[in-house]
UniProtKB/TrEMBL annotation:
Reaction catalysis annotation: [protein]-peptidylproline (omega=180) = [protein]-peptidylproline (omega=0)
Keyword annotations of the record: Isomerase, Rotamase, Signal
Record keyword Signal present: yes
Pfam families named in the record: Rotamase_2, SurA_N_2
Organism placement in taxonomy: Bacteria, Pseudomonadati, Candidatus Omnitrophota, Candidatus Velamenicoccus
Name of this chain's protein: peptidylprolyl isomerase
Secretion signal span: 1-19
Length: 314
């Protein structure tokens, strides 16, 4: 049977990365393979050592210790999240992965038999894992029940709706002349119906003159502040007043405007599957949760006794 190379090494290397890890739970004196299921405990068999009661569907036993179907499925999910290229979705692949887990379990049991769990670095790692699990659970408990009301979402939208607008793209033409009087003469011709492109070719001193003043889509980063300020006020078809710039006196005509529209709350945002409403709701929820945790940590710091020897950090 062909097996994916490296899967066993990956299993062993990531054995203690996930909260559902049976071995670490065993170090905390919980049932090996327990998933918190409400199923009746499977009767333990006598093996090389006493096994704890196991809750769940028995998939395999290794010297009396059990691997449940529930813990197996959780490990598959975690491994594929870590390495999406690994596919464990066929009976053959599942059998292969189960054999890897059995090997992992045998190595764990041997390590335990040798007293490795009593080594300081191992005990420290287990304690850090325990702290992480407990802190994560506290945060979940503390933020449970926090909600966002529709009125809060609507208020946020009304205040910041402009931020949801799509980027405004402007295609424009320009005429640049060296003197203000020349610019005034051209503007009069334009107001009398003169062709902007033809006048740009005839009178403009900018390199764009050969293209009838066509600048293409404007990149604000490539323009000076006054130019961007004027462009922002013009709709498609509008001609600007005269304004001064680095090369002389400018007249600009906006040919086309795309984007810049403000979406409604029910509109789906580009490149997402979320509506504006849902994005605001999620953002406000995360903000409230973060504030709740900040309030908790602030209180704990106020009430706790904290001593720091800053001189040791130099």
């Amino acid at each position: 049977m062909l097996r994916k190379p490296g899967v066993l090494l990956l299993v062993l290397a990531t054995a203690f990365m996930f909260a559902g890890c049976d071995q670490l739970k065993g170090m905390f004196q919980t049932s090996l393979g327990s998933t918190g299921s409400t199923k009746t405990a499977a009767p333990a068999e006598t093996g090389q050592h006493a096994a704890q009661p196991v809750y769940g569907t028995v998939l395999a036993k290794v010297n009396g210790d059990t691997i449940t179907l529930e813990s197996f499925d959780e490990k598959v999910k975690n491994l594929q999240a870590l390495s999406p290229e690994i596919k464990i979705n066929t009976p053959e692949a599942k059998k292969s992965y189960l054999n890897d887990l059995i090997t992992q379990e045998l190595i764990y049991q041997e390590a335990k038999a040798r007293g490795i769990e009593k080594q300081k670095d191992v005990k420290d790692a287990v304690e850090e894992f325990k702290k992480g699990v407990m802190a994560r659970q506290l945060i979940m408990d503390e933020t449970k029940g926090i909600t966002v009301e529709p009125s809060e979402i609507e208020a946020f939208y009304n205040q910041y709706k402009q931020a949801f607008a799509s980027a405004r793209q402007v295609r424009a033409r320009e005429i640049v002349v060296p003197t203000e009087q020349a610019a005034k003469d051209i503007l009069i011709q334009l107001l009398q119906g003169g062709d902007f492109a033809a006048l740009a070719k005839e009178r403009s001193i900018d390199a764009s003159a050969s293209k009838g003043g066509d600048m293409g889509i404007i990149n604000p980063a490539e323009q000076f502040d006054k130019f961007n300020e004027v462009i922002a006020t013009l709709d498609a078809g509008a001609v600007s007043p005269i304004f001064k710039g680095p090369k002389g006196y400018y007249i600009v005509k906006v040919e086309e405007v795309k984007g810049g529209q403000i979406p409604q709350l029910t509109d789906t945002l580009p490149d997402t599957n979320m509506t504006v409403y849902d994005q605001i709701k999620n953002g406000l929820l995360q903000q409230k949760q973060a504030q709740r945790i900040q309030d908790l940590t602030d209180r704990l710091r106020r009430e706790g006794k904290i001593e720091i020897k800053e001189e040791l950090l130099r």
